[in-house]
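Write out the bound-state structure for iron/sulfur cluster.
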Amino acid sequence: MNTHHEELTLKKYFQNIWNGIRTTIKGLSITIKHVYDVKPVTIEYPEVREVIPEGSRSRLFNDVQNCISCDQCAVACPVDCIYIASKPRPKDAEKIKTSNGTPIRRELTQYTIDTSLCCYCGLCTTVCPTESLTHTTDHEYASYTIDHMKYDYLDPEVVAWRDRIVK
Ligand code: SF4
Ligand code: SF4
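---
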């Protein structure tokens, strides 16, 4: 009786060792297969860059020459991160229009977007009647301070940024 019990224990012991070896080999073979067979899914950023799809919604740009200060973008924004100020143009001022022929009756004095609050929903660009407000494909604009994420679109630096990234 005792001998039979010892035999069973010994059998179980060797069975466990074999199971350990078998499952280790199986696991390692899967790992090795993936290391040598699978093409890398990562890229060497920033030396290599993905092409961002044309319709993607990244950093916003307002081409202020075509903005009529209608406030529709600010009203549509669900997080209230667009700040606009404007004043009526003098009655005797030269009549000017946007590139799509809309008369410009007000002078834009401030157009700021706080991109640290923006959720890139695209509602502001959808309602813009002159299409002056658009999303660009620029997604590389990390900054050290939250304050630097506020963009003043009347600032020549921001206009220059647009010229740099939009071909
Ligand atoms: S994309 Fe959305 S959240 Fe961002 S400014 Fe436009 S409306 Fe506001
Ligand atoms: S909706 Fe367009 S035109 Fe109107 S204020 Fe906004 S950016 Fe300017």
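---
Residues 95 and 103 are 7 Å apart (CA to CA).
The pocket of iron/sulfur cluster (ligand 1) is lined by residues 60, 76-79, 81-82, 113, 118-124 (CB under 6 Å).
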